[in-house]
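Sequence in, structure out. Go.
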Amino acid sequence: MFKAKSIPAWEIIEKDVIDEIIFRTDKPRDRLILELMARGGMRIGEVLKLTPADVQDRKLTLRSPKSGKRREHVFIPQKVADRLKAYIRDNNTQPDQRIFPICYEASRTMVKRAGLKVGIRLRPHDLRRHAATYTSRSGVPIEIVSKVILRYANLSTTQIYLGKVPDTEAIRLIENLYS
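Output:
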């Protein structure tokens, strides 16, 4: 008998918690990795593959992305872009070298430790999910969240990804809408 696949219920981490995690991260490399995932919606593998040649001000080019396309683009806030360019310059990273030459497991461990500093269990993908949820709750149309932030082909994937809206959030949104 066919049983529909259940959708996991993810814990949505609020913006102030993510900001605190990033603020408490002292090492510039680690802070940038966290910011690229939380502010740009990037996957950890995408962050680790970045080279200086992929950075064009606030636009990052992902070569051979997970989607199978030849390339995709990620847009990041100006402050993050400025810190990224300074990090590349300060570390004298060559155009074809990886900006963050660490392995996947080391980055997962760094993210986990960053979460423990504020008392939560944090995984790299939680930061990508935060980027999508935060932009959606800030009034960005779901089409933009799906196509630009998450870079998904189908809106249905994004809808699953965003999860449930808590009652308090729904009340706040309705109040802001009609006040």
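Check: Strands lie at 55-56, 59-63, 71-75. DSSP finds nine helices and three strands in the chain.
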